[in-house]
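Tokens in:
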């Protein structure tokens, strides 16, 4: 009898803190049948595969292997989490020179081994690296995309949930634009159960004032700096965010997530990748939603694109 081939095969390039956290959440999720681990530090990838495999008796069967790019053949999706991370006080954009080189090294090898799968970039600065990856991969639109502001949106929803005393899953609010300093909150759409935040009372019964909301956004924007100051890097939340994206792709869920895709004229932005609420399914980032934003929000979104475009020019 012919052996069944494993399906839902995921590749991961970069098995540092972010990659390993994603792998750890993936193995517990039951979302994929097989995970391929690749890293420039081959021993590190091998060690992670061993450690993760030893946990399988606790969570259920899956195939986890480390090795070379040839193992990526047949992957439905490859996640890239390789590259330098921020040092305390360093911005994501300051990683650009180093990590543009990392992406230029990795993407052609991924595509050569696996010409058809979806590619999800998480390395920073994710928006610029997504654009570079998309140019190199030459796959249909949406098949190369970035994790974008998925983590910022999660941080924002968590902080709003805490303030209003509501499960963050019931808070509908988005951070869009750059995954970085020029990102912006879409206050005009933020709501709990369809009620605008301005009309919801805080957990302590007080009304909501502009300054408090601005402070919540500022804490969102600065969260990575605060965590890196304390524990050098951030990885658990992005690991779970990547799992959410991967699940949306493998299960063709059509989940709306703030992932980053090269813009094709949306709100007048062209070329650079930015985050907007996007329908994610088997084809990757399938449909970017042109959400109604206020004039100020639109201006800030376009400014975010201009900042990234200038940075992209510096590594062209
Ligand atoms: N998108 C997000 O929201 C988000 C959140 C946190 C971190 N990050 C980014 O994720 C990236 C990884 O962070 P980390 O904390 O895991 O770093 P890390 O230093 O722990 O791991 C990086 C790994 O990449 C590997 N690597 C470097 N160059 C490579 C290459 N050319 N080919 C294959 N592997 C290579 C290294 O050997 C290392 O194992 C950083 O760029 C970081 O800024 C993104």
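Residues out:
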């Amino acid at each position: 009898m012919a052996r069944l081939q494993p399906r839902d095969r995921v590749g991961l390039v970069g098995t540092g803190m972010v990659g390993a956290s994603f792998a750890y959440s993936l193995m517990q999720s039951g979302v994929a049948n097989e995970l391929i681990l690749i890293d420039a530090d081959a021993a590190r990838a091998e060690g992670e595969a061993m450690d993760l495999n030893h946990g399988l008796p606790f969570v259920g069967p899956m195939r986890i292997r480390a090795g070379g790019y040839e193992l990526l053949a047949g992957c439905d999706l490859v996640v890239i989490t390789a590259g330098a991370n921020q040092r305390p006080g360093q911005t994501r954009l300051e990683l650009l020179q180093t990590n543009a080189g990392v992406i230029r090294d990795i993407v052609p090898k991924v595509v050569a081994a696996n010409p058809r799968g979806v590619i999800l970039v998480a390395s920073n600065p994710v928006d610029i690296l997504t654009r570079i990856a998309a140019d190199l991969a030459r796959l249909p639109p949406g098949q190369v995309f970035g994790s974008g502001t998925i983590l910022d949106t999660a941080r924002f929803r968590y902080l709003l949930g805490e303030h209003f005393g509501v499960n963050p899953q019931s808070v509908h609010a988005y951070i869009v634009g750059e995954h970085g300093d020029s990102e912006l909150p879409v206050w005009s759409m933020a709501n709990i159960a369809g009620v605008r935040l301005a009309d919801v009372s805080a957990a302590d019964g007080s009304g909501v004032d502009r300054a408090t909301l601005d402070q919540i956004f500022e804490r969102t924007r600065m969260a990575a700096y605060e965590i890196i100051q304390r524990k050098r890097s951030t990885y658990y939340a992005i690991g779970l965010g990547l799992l959410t994206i991967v699940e949306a792709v493998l299960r063709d869920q059509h989940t709306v997530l703030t992932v980053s895709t090269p813009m094709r004229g949306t709100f007048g932005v062209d070329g650079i990748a930015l985050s907007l609420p996007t329908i994610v399914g088997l084809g990757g980032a399938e449909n970017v939603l042109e959400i109604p934003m206020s004039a100020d929000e639109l201006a800030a979104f376009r400014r975010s694109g201009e900042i990234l475009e200038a940075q992209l020019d510096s590594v062209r």
